[in-house]
Amino acid sequence: MFSIITDHWATLCAGLGYTLMASLIALVGSLVIGTAFALMEISHRKWVRLIGRAYVELIRNIPLLVITMAFFVIVPMFIVKVDGFTAGTIGLTIYTSAFIAETVRAGIESVAVGQMEGARSVGMSYTQAMVHIVFPQAIKIVIPPLGNQFINLVKNSSVLAFVAGFDLMYQAKIIANLTFDTFDTYLAVGVFYLVLTMPLSYLMRYLEKKWVTA
Amino acid sequence: MKLFKQTLAMVVALGLAAVLTACGQDAASRDALAHAKEVNTIVWGVKADTRLFGLMNVKTGKIQGFDVDMARALTKQILGPSAEATLVQVTSDTRVPMLKGGNLDTVIATMTVTPERQKVLDFSDPYFNAGQSLLVKKGSPIKTVADLKAGTKVIGVQGSNSVDNVQKAAPKTTVLQLSDYAQAFTALKSGQGDALTTDNGILYGMSKQDPNYVVVGGTFTKEPYGIAMNKGQTALRLAINQALKELKASGAYTRLVNKWFGDIPGFDAKEVE
Amino acid sequence: MQNFIDAYSQVNLAFLLRGLWVTVEVSVTSIFFSFLIGTLLGIARYVKVRFFSSLVGFLIDLLRNLPLLLILFFTYFALPKIGIRLGVIPASIVAMTVFESAMLAEIVRSGINAVPIGQMEAARSNGLSYAQAMIQIILPQAFKKMIPPIVSQFISLVKDTSLATIILLPELTYHAQIVYGQNANYAIPMFVALAVLYFIANYTLSIGARLINRRLNHA
């Protein structure tokens, strides 16, 4: 296993870079899109709510691979050229946005409206109330699920291997085919994924525990 | 429900097997020919994504092609007329680990004999002489491998030696590796790459499926296809070589070549033997 | 439009449905086993047996933090090296079960954690053994709360079976890829069919769960 890591260090690091990049871009993208759809879901207009709901339900029930392949195969045929990395990242973004939308909607609904009113009634300005009262609470609600989504993104980004997206899994397959040493290669790549996800996973658990009990 | 029970047994067996591995007989190293004679079948890894060699027929769910017919003929030649070939789908990406893992007795799947592969596998005598070439959209500016310059993208398949070859022949081009030939051809049609490279026989199959895509530039490598098996399976290798000779002598081999490649324009059936 | 009509020929649809059947088969079997194993692991983690629980916890964390794709690969291609050889369907089921059990164990653990500790104490003081209290008092309450996250996890499981195309499991997505791989005109119709079929499969699962939930709450 160690010879795989030392012999193919550059390849693995390149893969790690693409994995991380795709995950980060998708995190930001899905946050924006997810929040937008969350806001639509709690809109006062019925048809806006309906669109929001339909998007979330549809995307949640279709496999990430199918969404990604659609961007890789269909979009370039008719609309615009997207390469494997882009198709994979867009697929990840759209897929994750449905889950973010659910998280954000639940978060917004759980924040008591009274908090803001209470802060205003003791003489805080709107901005003060937002900065000192609402925002700190909102972050505590949002960070743990977002962290978990990021872990999921890192894991799910392995779908890029299907569309030649140069990620860790794609490089793993290439190394396995070069060395014919499947066992050690996947063991080594597993370690690379764990280096990314394990610390994050423990950090999230720590934050959850700290903030829930506090 | 049968599947339920099987899997339950499987999960239990998994734990046990992990413990008992050291004592168990390794399937990759047992005598594959002796075992094949016992069960009257040979387990072949064949392609299901490659027209002319091994392609899934959507209507029947069966795999058809030259490699598949060869597997059937060789099985009967070795084990007798009552024997049937067992076909298992592989891709370029999965055939070596599956063979080494002992899931297959042997692989007949457009597999070129290369020095790297000979380090980990044994091969029969070549049964088909292909050569690597390029497939492009009609009217493409790419005419030969020399046109693959910086900025061009060429599509290949993971685990095929054509990706290594094209990287050597055209070091500046970007190679995109997909998981099988169906995906690779779809990617070419989607414009993910400027050309698709692999052995000419496979490319002619794609061109036959969609005549908007043509094989260009002749061949730039020699790709002798061999039948692969695990190291040390000498009895099986000799039996396959013997059966190959017999099929060639009886004319059965030529009939199969003509059946699959006889009407392919630009393809010289004489060259492959 | 003609593409759609051609693509949805009887032959192609039958081929897709054969793929769907494998998806369902693998999903249902994996759901059954991962529910069983996940619950046991979740309890093992909750009860805090010295050393054992933390070992289980560590293994669960490892599996939860790896891509399923890697676990699938490993099960099919790497395990044979240590003598475990599985066909493609059992390999998919084993990989899915291993991964989803770890995910479910975490859900079960936090579900049990959410049941007030007084419940256990009360049950014990009424003369129930620890196991009796767990099975009769704690778990039923925990499961009621766990139904929504468990169902989401099962929906993920059904979707994730598509990843097994990488080891050539002849399931729905793989069959669709074969169809459009042979005729690119069928690409759009095939993706539409995939979306519809997966949606139906998962929505059925959600509705089933809703019915179970309602019954539990009435009981």
What does this 3D model show about the protein?
The complex is a heterotrimer of chains A (214), B (273) and C (219). Chain A is 84% helix and 0% strand. By secondary structure, chain A is an all-alpha fold. Chain A has a single domain (2-213), classed as Orthogonal Bundle (MetI-like fold), CATH 1.10.3720. In chain A, helix 7 (126-156) runs antiparallel to helix 9. Chain A starts with a helix and ends with a helix. Chain B has 273 residues and is an alpha/beta fold. Chain B folds into two domains: 28-129 and 224-267, Periplasmic binding protein-like II (D-Maltodextrin-Binding Protein, domain 2), CATH 3.40.190; 132-221, Periplasmic binding protein-like II (D-Maltodextrin-Binding Protein, domain 2), CATH 3.40.190. Chain B has eleven helices and 15 strands. Chain B has helices at 2-20, 32-39, 66-79, 95-100, 115-120, 162-169, 181-189, 200-209, 234-250, 252-261, 269-272, and strands at 41-47, 49-50, 54-56, 63-64, 84-90, 106-107, 121-123, 128-130, 132-137, 153-157, 174-178, 195-199, 213-216, 223-225, 228-230. Chain B has a five-stranded mixed beta sheet with strand order 11-10-12-9-13, sandwiched between helices. A three-stranded parallel beta sheet of chain B has the order 5-1-6. Chain B is globular. Chain B starts with a helix and ends with a helix. The model of chain B is unreliable at 18-25 (pLDDT under 50). By secondary structure, chain C is mostly helical. Chain C has a single domain (2-218), classed as Orthogonal Bundle (MetI-like fold), CATH 1.10.3720. Chain C has helices spanning 2-7, 10-47, 52-64, 68-78, 88-114, 117-125, 130-160, 172-182, 187-218. In chain C, helix 2 runs antiparallel to helix 3 (52-64), helix 5 (88-114) crosses helix 7 and helix 8 (172-182) packs antiparallel against helix 9. Chains in contact: A-B, A-C, B-C. Chain B binds chain C through residues 3-4, 6-8, 10-11, 14, 17-18, 20-21, 24, 26-28, 48-49, 55-56, 58-59, 61, 89-91, 94, 97-98, 100-103, 179, 181-183, 185-186, 189-190, 209-210, and chain C through 11-12, 15, 18, 25, 29, 32-33, 77-87, 89-90, 93-94, 97, 166-168, 170, 177-184, 187.
